Amino acid sequence: MSKRKVSPYQLVVTDIDNTVFDWVNYYVASFNALLDTVAGVIGSTREVLAAEAKDVFTTHGSIEYPFLIQELKSVNEFYGSNIDAMLNEAVFKGREAFMKEASRVLKPYQDVHRTLSEIKRHYPDLPIIALTDAPRYVAMWKLNKLGLLEFFHAVYGLPDPRVPTCEVNRRVKVDPEILLKHLQQSNFGFKGRIRILPDDYEKPGVRGLKTVLMDYELDEPVEHRKSVLWIGDNLRKDIGLGNRLGVRSAWAEYGTRLDQGILASLALFSPTQNVHKNVYIKADDPAAPKPSVVFAAFADVLKELGIEGK
After folding, report:
1. Which distant-in-sequence residues (6+ apart) come within 8 Å of 42 by Cβ?
2. Checking phi first, is residue 80 left (phi over 0); if not, alpha (psi -120 to 50) or beta?
3. Residues 158/135, Cβ–Cβ less than 8 Å
4. Residue pair 113/201 in contact by the 8 Å Cβ criterion
5. Does residue 67 lie in a domain region?
6. Please, which pLDDT band fits residue 310 given cuts at 50, 70 and 90?
7. Is residue 221 situated within a structural domain?
8. Disulfide-capable partner of 308 in 94, 252, 278, 302 (CB 3.0 to 4.6 Å)?
9. CB within 8 A of 246, min separation 6: which ones?
10. The whole model's pTM is what?
11. Taking the CB of residue 39, how many other CB atoms lie within 10 A of it?
12. 3-class DSSP state of 250
């Protein structure tokens, strides 16, 4: 009987957005469906609501704030303190439109599921970690919808968003069923480790990835960090922090192949800082950090792990 080969790495850590799936295409398509639907309900336009959304996202510091509709200026002016009508009409229909479009476009990159399956088959004890700047709940919701959550040993994300309330009567502006899921911090049946990191641990700061290294006892001595493979699409955010910590940094170059029209649509509702935070605009940048290795597809991780060709 041949002896099972040992993985060349003790830990694989990966970003999610534009690394395991096309976040830009998914979010722009789904969010525009939401805007169009809400605009139709209250008699507004996508352009007006997009500008208002930009203000809300700026306030919350995240473009994936899930209670966006309830805080749009036009929606609040239309409904006033009639929260029931707001939830039953604009919020319900807008959320439904988002989910319907997401079910169509929210898919893993073509080779991700097979690649993760192969890693688990060859190295069942090798932990695969998700490290993201998205809110923890949002990140796990996406991984669950993508059919990938089962492959991860742990998920590290930022704090979940606050729940909006009506300024007039202080009533919570969230459907009770959704509020219950939010308060229960649903984990979608995930059995692995869940870590909610402080907001100031956001990339390109190193503390998020360093927390992962410490949790898996690979932070000190520093030589241990070489046994960690870190995958991300953003040279400045992901590769930069990986290089500073001394891990093996793999650039998901395929995640930067973006449609310019979709990027232009994203810019209509996303604050500029969020565009740069969520999307790496590939351009000639001699000062950009250099990765240890470049992945043309997520499946390249199989070669990196010595699995390809077995």
Report:
1. 74, 75, 78, 90
2. left
3. yes
4. no
5. no
6. very low
7. yes
8. 302
9. 222, 225, 226
10. 0.91
11. 21
12. strand
What is the number of domains present in the chain?
A: 1
The SS3 of residue 228 is strand
Residue 110 token pair: 């073509």
* Short-list 205, 84, 207, 98, CA closest to 142: 98
pLDDT of residue 260: 87
Is residue 267 helix, strand or coil?
A: helix
Residue with tokens 């722009």: 28
Tens digits of per-residue pLDDT, 221-230?
Answer: 999 999 999 9
CATH number for the domain spanning 195: value is 3.40.50.1000
How are strands ordered across the β-sheet holding 11-14? 193-196, 154-158, 128-135, 11-14, 228-232, 248-252, 293-295
CA dihedral for 139, 140, 146, 151, sign (positive or negative): positive
Which tokens go with 216? 């898996």
Where residue 108 falls (left for φ over 0; alpha for ψ -120 to 50; beta otherwise) is: beta
Question: Distance (Å, rounded) from C-alpha 49 to C-alpha 125?
Answer: 48
Residue 288 covered by a domain: yes
Give the pLDDT score at 151.
97
Contact 29, 105 (CB under 8 A): yes
Quick one: pLDDT at residue 110?
A: 92
On whether the CB atoms of residues 280 and 23 are closer than 8 A, the answer is no
Q: Is residue 75 part of a domain?
A: no
- pLDDT reading at 108 higher than 90: yes
Query: What is the distance in angstroms between the CA of the first residue and the CA of the last residue of the chain?
Result: 16
Residue bearing tokens 């968003």: 161
Q: By residue range, what is the domain housing residue 184? A: 11-22+108-304
